Amino acid sequence: MAARTAGEAYRSAKARAFGGWLLAGTVWLSLSASANSLQTETVEPETSAVSDRAAPQETWYYGKKGLTYDPGGPTELWIGVRLQTRFDDYPGQNPSAADLRLERDSELDLNRGRLKGGGPLGAQWLDVYFEYDQPSGYLLDLRATVQLRDQLFLRLGQWKSEYNRERIDSSGKQQMTERSISNYWFAIDRQAGVALSGRFANGTRADSNWWLEYLSGEGRGGGWRSESGLWLVRYQWNPQGEPLPFSQSDLKRREQLLTSVAVAAIDGRTPYSRFSSDGGDQLPGISTEDNDLTQLLFETAAHWRGISWQQELHSKRVRDRLSGQSREMRGGYIQLGSFINEWWQAWPRQLEVAGRLSIVDPDRSLSGNTEKERILGLNWFFNGHRNKLTLDYSWLNFEDFGDSATRNRLRLQWEVSF
Questions:
Q1: Is 183 helix (H, G, I), strand (E, B) or coil?
Q2: CA 216, CA 220: separation in Å to the nearest integer?
Q3: Cβ neighbours of residue 308 closer than 8 Å, sequence gap 6 or more
Q4: Per-residue b/e over 50-67, b at no fewer than 16 CB within 10 Å?
Q5: Which residues contact 40 (CB under 8 A, 6 or more apart)?
Q6: Pairing state of beta strands 67-72 and 60-62?
């Protein structure tokens, strides 16, 4: 817990130091960029290189991902900035009832400030990507993806592992200001590793994506150790013959239902029981540093006519290799959102309402230790997920090992990318 606390303190200090000038510099840019979009249909911008290439050919130009360098030929690199400014009347993570009872001051800070970029480099079959977080000073992603065949890819480096949809979805493409409480307990997050991925039966009822990854088990920035390593496998069925993008909210307001059904598993050895953007850490009540980790996931998601749905069910076991003792936990969430304008024309077109219920049982061997989060949110989209306001209100109820606490929480966030 000390590593997590130090990371949060460092992150908050950096945010306060730099958040002001970043926010001020963004206001003019974002308002001018979104002025014309208020009168247009709310549709998530496509990120394909095809649309960018349709513009007049210049070596440097501003594309849909950011500033783009296109000297001609296979190289086409871009760089962009994403800022997330948040007011939180009860900031910080709350993994236990004791944490939830702590008194904290409300906070207005730069929650995330990302510099990211990538694209084809020297060949169409080689794609590179990096992502750096300014408040924390962390290099989050540094990876290269090689296209081996039409639907077969090899990835090397450090990236957000493809385990569960909620974590794969960018923090800028969430329906709430933050992911569910189950993310704290079950995320595999960023790891160094090597991966194969692919797709088969394209465009048919059997259309499927798959991922096979070998991860370091050391978390972000952890490097490699010979005694650590996690195997990850994910299978995703696309019943309509098209993959559902890893992005929340049905901004395209699809006329045809698009769904996804996935299962995933993790197994291996690691010194940690929890992972986040801060790196590897331990869950409350676990202090061992040589563990066998096993996780299972069942997940569904759907978009249709402005309605979005996603759900995850997690199971996790952490086994101490020295004592042989193990701890099992379960949890998950269900989340539903809607552009009510699709059904009631008086509702503002840019406004989405969403709700989520998340439940975690941190220790299956004990009774009366359930953590619950109920949350209601509103999103106003100026330009898709690239410029939006999010307001959410949470009801938290934690019962941990005979201890209990409740709290309500209000958060307001402005998300902007350029």
A1: helix
A2: 9
A3: 175, 248, 249, 250, 301, 302, 335, 336, 337, 338, 354
A4: eebeeeeeeeeeebbbbe
A5: none
A6: antiparallel
How does pLDDT run across 261-309, given as a tens digit for each residue? 999 999 999 999 999 999 999 999 899 999 999 999 999 999 999 999 9
Q: Is residue 38 a contact partner of residue 384, using CB atoms and an 8 Å limit?
A: no
Torsion 223-152-296-170 (CA) sign:
positive
d(CA 179, CA 169): 10
CA distance 259 to 243: 8
- Is 15 within 8 Å of 110 (Cβ atoms)? yes
- Residue 50 sits at φ, ψ, to 5 deg, of -60, -45
Structure tokens at 130: 């990096």
Question: CB–CB of 96/274 below 8 Å?
Answer: no
**Structure token pair of residue 252:** 């395209």
Q: Give strand ranges (E) for 51-201.
A: 60-62, 67-72, 75-88, 107-120, 126-133, 138-149, 152-160, 190-200
Tokens encoding 304: 């249709």
Q: How far apart, in Å, are the Cα atoms of 183 and each of 65, 104, 273, 313, 393? A: 27, 22, 13, 11, 18
Q: Angle at the Cα of 335 (from 298 to 130), degrees rounded to 5?
A: 75
Query: CB of 248 within 8 A of CB of 169?
Result: yes
In angstroms, the CA 165 to CA 157 distance is 20
- Mind listing the pLDDT tens digit for each residue in 298-326? 999 999 999 999 999 999 999 999 999 99
Place of tokens 């090397």: 156
Model confidence at 393: pLDDT above 90: yes
Q: Write the pLDDT tens digit of every residue in 37-76.
A: 333 334 444 444 444 445 456 799 998 899 999 998 899 9
Structure tokens at 349: 């077109």
For residues 126 and 137, the answer to whether their CB atoms sit within 8 Å is no
Whether 115 contacts 134, CB under 8 Å: yes
Residues in the chain, total: 418
**SS3 (DSSP) at 182:** helix
pTM above 0.90, yes or no: no
Residue 410 · residue 174 · CB < 8 Å: no
- Distance spanning both ends of the chain, measured CA to CA: 35
CA distances from 53 to 63, 69, 386, 393 (A): 9, 11, 21, 42
Q: What is the DSSP string of 103-137?
A: ----EEEEEEEEEEEEEE-SSTTEEEEEEEETTTT
